[in-house]
Amino acid sequence: MNDASDVRIELFRDEKNSTSKYGIVHSERETLDRDDKEPFYFANFPLSEKAKKLEVVITWKEKGSDRSYQERFTFSQD
């Protein structure tokens, strides 16, 4: 992993009877170095007991570049 800039982490949960997602966490860092031990920390976040899906979206740029990257993770309960 290279050092990153404009790092953003967002968490969304599903909304019953809707295709819209409800944002529950939004965190940003201007820079993120590979030596950072705990770059992001969430003590807790409000996830409804009725939620069936949690989506984590991470976006960033490699330091010194204008190209954006994104990773998306979806956790679901069936």
Structure description:
It is a single chain. The protein is mainly beta and 78 residues long. 0% of the residues lie in helices and 54% in strands. The protein has strands spanning 4-14, 21-32, 53-62, 68-76. It has a four-stranded antiparallel beta sheet with strand order 2-1-3-4, with no helix packed on it. Strand 3 and strand 4 (68-76) form a beta hairpin. The termini are far apart. The model has no long low-confidence stretch (mean pLDDT 85).
Q: Which band does the percent of strand residues land in?
A: over 45%
- How many beta strands in the DSSP annotation? 4
Order of helices and strands: EEEE
Mean pLDDT: 85
The share of residues in helices is under 10%
Secondary structure category: mainly beta
- State the distance separating the first and last CA atoms: 33 Å
- Major pleated sheet: 4 strands, antiparallel
Supply the number of helical segments.
Answer: 0
| Major beta sheet, strand line-up | 2-1-3-4
What value does the Rg take, in angstroms? 14 Å
Shape: elongated
| Low-confidence runs of at least 5 consecutive residues | none
